[in-house]
C-alpha cells in the first residue's frame, strides 16, 4: 500500500500540534450523517435500485473531471469508451479502463485522485492506486463486487449515511422516478430540485417549444406573463410534492432585473416573435431570477443560483459526444451589481433564502462575503466544481469567513453525478474544514470547543438548516 | 477565562519556531506609539472630552461591522437600538445590548470579535466573551466605568499612546471642533483631513448647493473652473491651519482624467445647467482627482484615494436608518488604466504623494504593487475595511511586498469610527505584520535584525513619514 | 556573512518535517541541467563570447526590476547610469553602483534581492549583501573578475549547466549572431525564437514599413493576405534553421479571431489605407494569433502567447531613457472568451501546442487551469515577470495544479535579460517547487517517491518536452 494512499491524516495541517487538533475535530465529524442537498445523481438509480453495470460505466465515463484530464493529454473520448452521439463504435469497458488505469498518474495533485482512491477503497477495498499493472485485476474485481447487494444504490446511501439527497430536474421533467420513490415512501430521503432553465433561458435551443410544453403541462397560457408565472407556480408545487425544498438556476452571469409590470409582457412577446436578441435573452433570464425569488417568497422554496460558466466551448466534441465532457469554462461574474435588483426587492424577506454559487474566486472576499454578511436572505454556497478541492476549500474559507462569518455559509454540497464520490467529497470537505478550524485554534482566534461546535455544524447540520430540510429525512 | 480570549500569542504563526520569532518581534513593537493618520472618529469627542454615554452607544450602534452581521442573521436595526430617521421608537440600550451579547458567537472568526474582545478587556477589564449570561453584568459594568476620567476621549488617546490622530471632514465643514482644539493647543495631536467629496461628486444630492456654498465660504465664483479651483485652494489652506496634512477622496472607481483647459469650463457648465449625465459626473470626478493632485503639488498635502465601493445598495434601510449600516459593497477597480492620466501628469513630482486604497484584492499583485514599485509618488494604502483583518493583512502582504517592496507601503491606518477599536486594530496589524516577517525570517528571505527594523518601521513610523507628519505630533 | 544570505534552506517550508522533505527533494534537482526555452538574453554575448564590461552594465542598468524599484524611491535614471536617448550625460558606473549598493535594503522581501545575492555569490564569491560600505570594494572586485575566462558568456552557460537557451528575435531580425553561432556549431544549445510582433501589431509605430520590409526579405507581396502569411511561413523556416522550435507573441489581451477568408484581405487593406482604427488593430492582432496557430500546425513550432501588459505607461521616461524601465503594468485578461476562436479551430490538433502566459492571477484557477485540463493543445506557462517570485510561484501552484494537473504545466522559463540571474531564477523555482511538493507529501496527497519524480520532471525535463527540444541540445 502506497504510503500516501488514503493516509488517515491526509489534508491535515503540516504543523504537528495543529494537525493533532484537526485530527481531534475530524474524529467528531467523520461519522456524522451526510446531507446532500444539491447534486446530479440519477433518480433512476434510487427508484429501481439495480446494480451498476461495470467499472467503466460507474467510475470513468460519467466523470467529466476524469475525462477532461485524460482528453487534455491527447487521449480520445472514443478510446475512453465515451458513447458517441452517432452511435459509432467506441472502446469497450475493459480497454477504456486499461487506458484510464495506465494514465492514473495524471491525477496526482488533483481532487479526482483523492475521490477515486476513496471510492475504490470505500466501495471495493482496493488499497493501491490504479496502474497499468493492476488494470485488469481491478476491473474484474469491481465488476464482480457490483453484483453484491451492498453495492446497489440504496445500500450505498445507507452505508455512506446519506440522510437526504437531492437530485436536479428540469421544469418539464415528469419526475417519473421520483413518483415511484414517492410510492415507495422514499421521498424525504430522495428529493428532486426544480431547475427551470429549460423554460427560462431563451438561448436554450428548444426554448419556445419548452414554453409551449410548460403551458400544456400546467393548463396555463405560457405566452402571457401571468400564465407563465402561474405555470411555474404549479410546477414548483408539483416538484414540492416530490420532495423539492429548493430551486436551482444555472445562468451565465449574475445579472438580475426588476422590470416594471408594463415591460414584462412586451419582453415575452419579443421573444415569442423572434429572432431573439442577446439583449432580450439576457434581460429575460435576469427578470426570471427575480420572478423565481418572488415565488420563493410565496412558497418558501430555497433558491439556488449557479452563475458564471461558459458552456460547451468545444462545439466539435459537443457534436460528437455531447455535453459535460470538460469544455465548460468558468468566467467572471459581478454579483454586487448583478444581484442588486433581486436583493433590493426580496433581500429582507424572512421567507426568502438565496444560496449563491460561482467560480470566480475574486468576488468571494470582495463582493459575496460582504453581501452575505449584510443581506438576511443571502447565504454563500460552498466551493463549487473546480474549487471543490482541498486548496479551493482553503481559499474559500480564507476569503469568506472574516466578512460573512460562519453562519451565513450553506455548509457543503457535493454537487456530483458520481454516486461513489459522495462519501469521498464530504470526507474532503470535513477534513479541510477541520484543518481550517484547527489553524484558527492554534492561532487562538477561536477556542477548541468553539472549533468543535463549528466543525459539527458545518459538516452536516448547516446544509440541512440552510435548505430547510426537516430534522430527519 | 476562555482559553482563546486574547491569548498573548494570538494571530502568530502555527510553527513553534516561527511563532517564537514573531513573539520576539512583537515585543519590540507592541508599545510603540500609535499614529492614526486616517479615520472617522468624531472631533467633538476630543474637543469637549465628555464621557461616553453607555455601552450600546459606544460599542454597538456606531459599529457598522457589528450591525451588518447581526442584520444578516435577521435581527432588526430597530431591535438593535439603531436610531430611526423618522424618530420612531427603537429598543433601549439595555435591550439592544442583550440582543448583541446573546448573538456574540456570530462574530467567531471575524475581525469584529478580535476588536471587541480587545476593547472590552482594554477599556473595562472584561476577560470573557459576551454572552446572554453576562449581558446585564457587562452592560452595567461598562456604563459604570464610563464615568471614570480614564475613559474620557483624551485619556483614551493617552493610554493608547496615540501620538497623532486625523479625523475626516467635508469641504464645507466649519471645523468648529478643530477650532476649539486649536485654541487648546491640541492641533498636531488631533488633525483634520480635507475630503471634498461633497463638492467634487456630481452625484451628491446637494452637489450644486454645496458648490454654491463653497463659493460663499471662500468668496470665489465656484461656477467658473478657475474660481472653483481657487476655492479648493483656500479651503485646503484653512484645513491645514487645523492640522490637515492630507486630503481624501472617495470615488466609485479609480478613473482619472487630464482634460485640456478648453474642456474644463464647458464640463462645469453642463453640470450646472443639468440634467447631470452619468458620463459627465464620472468625467468631473476623474478630472477633479487630477486637479486635487495638482493642488497637492502646490501645497504638499498628501493625497488619498479610496476607490471602488458601491454605496447604499439597500435603499430601504438607507431611508429608514441612514447610511453606514453595512450595505456598502466593494467592486472591481482598474487602477492601471484609471490612474494613468493623473500619474502621467504628476507621478514624478517630488512634492506629490498619492496613497491609494481599494477593496479589489485582484489588483494588488497585478496592478498596484507594480505601479507602486515604479512611480515615485505612489504609495500603497494598507488593507482597508473588510480586508483590515488577519487574513486580509496576510493576503495583502503576500500580494504586494515582492513587487512594491516594504518602503512603498504607507504603514497602517485604522480608518475607524470606533474609538476603542483603535488600539485593537493597531494590535492586529502589528501581530500580523510580525507573523509575516517571522515567516520570511524562518524562510531565510530576511534576517532577524532586518525583520526587527521592518517591524518597527511599519508599526508606527511608516505612517508618520508617509503622511508627512512632523516627528512629534 | 549575514545569517540570511543565501541560507541553504532558504524558501523551504517553515515546518521542520516538511522542510526536511523539501531539502531531500531539492538535493535531487539542484544539479540538473537548466533548460531555458524562453528569454531575452543577447545573442551577441554567445556569438562573440566577449567579457562583460563592468558591474554596473552587467548587473544594474539592464535590470528593469532593480531600476524600477530605485526609481520608485525617487532616484533618477540619470544618477543610476541609465543611458539617455539624447546621449546626454549620466552617472558613471562607479557612482551608479554606489547609489545602488547604498539602497540595497529597498530590495528586502523582493525576488530581485534573492537573484542579486545569488548572482553576486555565484559569479563573484561575494557573501554579504551590498551596502554603502562595500560598494567600492564589490565594484572593483566584480570588474576585476569579469576579465576571467570563467566569466565569459559561454563559460557562464557551462558552469550553470545550461543545456539549451533560447533568445527572442523579431520577424525582421537578420539573425546575424545566430548565423555566427550556426557556423560555430552552437545552434542547438543557443536557439532563436520567432516573435513577429513587429509585423503583426498595427499599433507598432513602424508597422507598415515593417510589413514592407517583410515582403522584401521574403520576396512575397505582404500587402496581400496570402503573401503575408507566406512571408511568415518563410521567416519561420529561416528561424528554424537557426534553432527556433517556438514562436512568441506579445499582445495586450488574450483576444483571438477566426475570420472567414473573405474578410481577411479587406482588413489588411484597411490597415494599409489607414488611418488604423483601434478596432481593426485589435482584430488584426486577434486574427494573426490564429494564423500563427495554423502555421504551427503546419511546421510544428510551439506557440507562446504573453498577454496582458499595458506597455510604456510613462511617456516621459520612454522619451528620455527608452522602454523596459519598469513602467509596463499588467492588466486583466479574459482567456476563456479570448482564446476560444483559436482553440475551437486548432485546440485538438496533435501537431499544435500553445503555451499561454499572463499576469492576471485571477484567471489561473478560474479559466486557465480548467482550459489546460481540457484542451490537448494548451499548456500553462510558468509564473511570469512580477510573479516569478517565491510567493508568485506558491500562488501559481496553489491555483493551477488541482484543475490542470502537473503534466499540463510547461515547466519553468527564466524569461530574463540578465545572464547571471538564470541560475538564480531556476534555483528559486526549484526550491519553491520542492516546497510545494513537500507540503503535498506531508499532507499525504502524494507520496515522497511521486514528489521526487515530479520535482525532477518539472525542474528541467518538462521545459524540454513542452518546447519540443531534442533530448540533448
Detailed description of the structure:
Three copies of one chain form a homotrimer. Chain A has 473 residues and is of the alpha/beta class. Helix content of chain A is 50%, strand content 8%. Chain A has two domains: 16-50 and 153-466, Alpha-Beta Barrel (TIM Barrel); 51-151, uronate isomerase, domain 2, chain A, CATH 1.10.2020.10. Chain A has helices at 16-29, 43-48, 55-60, 64-72, 93-102, 111-124, 135-145, 153-159, 176-183, 197-200, 207-218, 225-241, 261-273, 278-299, 315-321, 335-338, 340-346, 362-372, 390-404, 421-442, 448-466; strands spanning 34-36, 162-166, 169-170, 190-191, 194-195, 246-251, 302-307, 309-310, 329-330, 354-358, 378-380. In chain A, the strands form four sheets. In chain A, strands 6-7-10-11 form a four-stranded parallel β-sheet, with helices on one face. A three-stranded parallel β-sheet of chain A has the order 1-2-4. Chain A starts with 15 loop residues before the first helix and ends in a 7-residue tail after the last helix. Chains in contact: A-B, A-C, B-C.
